[in-house]
Amino acid sequence: MINMTANDQNTKNGSVHKQWIIGFISTTMILTYGLQSGWMSPTISTLQSERSPCGRPLTTNEISLVAGLISMTAITTAVIFGYIADYIGRRKTLILIVIPQILGFALKIVSAHPICLMVAQACCGIAGGGVYCVSPTYVKEIAQDSIRGVLGCSGILLQSLGLVIMYAMGAYMEYYTVLWIVVWLPILNLIALFQIPESPAFLVKTGKVEEATKVMAWLRGVEEDHKEVERDITILQNEMMASENLPAVTWKSILSDKVSRRALGLSFLCMTMLDLGGNYGIVAYASVILKQSGVTFSPELQALSFPILMTLGSLISAVTIEKFGRKPLIMVSAIFTGTPLAVLGAMLLVVKNGGSMPPWIPVACIGVCLYASGQMMSLPFIVMSEMFNVQMRTKVLGLLSTYGWSLAGLQTLLFAPITERFGMYTIFFTFALVNAIGTLICAITMPETKGKTLAEINKELLGR
Fold first, then answer.
1. Which residue intervals of 8-59 are DSSP H helices?
2. Cβ atoms 390, 239 nearer than 8 A
3. Which of 112, 142, 395, 415 has the greatest count of CB atoms below 10 A from its CB?
4. What angle (nearest 5°) sits at the alpha carbon of residue 281, between those of residues 377 and 427?
5. How far apart are CA 37 and CA 121, in angstroms?
6. Burial, 312: exposed, middle or buried (Cβ in 10 Å; 0-12, 13-18, 19+)?
7. pLDDT of 55-100, one tens digit each?
8. Which residues contact 129 (CB under 8 A, 6 or more apart)?
């Protein structure tokens, strides 16, 4: 672990650069996840060709299994990692998550046999289930209020960047060359994770108040007796004492408490807007939509343009979140996701009834939707981590991650059959309706969490 000495600390104003470094180390696994989730798309054509690295072209069923195992396994592991993080700590759990990420790339290097690829993808999914549960929690617990939102957004920005990098490498590099390059990222990440400290919140939770004070002071570049460190440690202790006076944290106790129940309901709303708002269906079927509209792009340009737009949205979200807050960005993202989907649905309905659609409309709608989706992706995780105390945080994020993975899989699974049965415009109108209802509920009931303590957020949830 990094040596925390007084010589490392500034005595007056402090600094945030250590929080940025530690935050980057703890979110690098999200960059790795971006690489792993993007690996399949540019690789399918190679795996199904005569020059397939497994010695024969993979069948459509084998490709479906290899592609689907990430989400299938992630659904089952998110909640498990939440409980592990509460039991052994955030830092050790992050280390556990990176190990299957290493295996996910290493097994593909060892063998391209379909079974080996499936096991490798399952390893990626195991890690993926924990990435969005534990990493946001750790970042929230090490970051001071002024940079909490920016650090939280950086993880999703890294995921989008991982997609761009993998799509670019996959399009122009050999199969094994790509794998040999990317396998080193989780290995280096694992080494770096052994150097980071445990989060102050978890240390306070386990009674290690003195160590928590040292870690917080080191992260902020100040002395241990700095007034802000003393204040925040006291806040953590008060939160812990308040939670200790309550019954043991179970799902029954969470649901029976008005504040926790409202926070949980709003968290489910955020995840529904994110994962049932249309972004996954758009990403998966954008080429089909464009083709039906008579628009054609080169495969390489199309593959790169989608993650680049999402990366741009994530970047803008990271830059603006501390200025505008969480709630306005969630609402704006939902509006700019739902509106183009409603327009696209209307245009497709016009085409179905014999009209025509200018080619630029689907291109513009998909572009705006993907940009807004990228802007939205990190916001629910930031808000959720800020609305729950340290006792509940990872349990709730584990459940919500599982819920999100399930919705994303359901959206991708049902898009084609619903489109075939009722028309593509029907599902776009449905996505637009989800965004409209979510925006309205968010405007009325969701508190702004930017720069606020848990006690202040709880008061707003109670309507005081």
1. 17-38, 40-47
2. yes
3. 142
4. 120
5. 9
6. middle
7. 888 887 787 778 778 878 888 888 888 889 888 999 999 999 999 9
8. 73, 74, 75, 76, 77, 78, 80, 81, 401, 402, 405
3-class SS of residue 452: coil
Distance, CA of 116 to CA of 274 (rounded, Å): 32
Residue type at 200? P
Task: Decide: helix, strand or coil at residue 14.
Answer: coil
The tens digit of pLDDT for each residue in 227-255 reads 888 888 888 888 777 666 655 667 777 78
- Spell out the residues 6+ positions from residue 31 whose beta carbon is closer than 8 angstroms to its own: 158, 159, 161, 162, 185
The structure's pTM equals 0.78
Give one DSSP letter per residue of 289-347, joined into a string.
HHHHTT----HHHHHHHHHHHHHHHHHHHHHHHHHH-HHHHHHHHHHHHHHHHHHHHHH
What pLDDT band is residue 6 in, cutting at 50, 70 and 90?
very low
Each residue's pLDDT tens digit, 162-195:
888 988 888 788 999 999 999 999 999 999 999 9
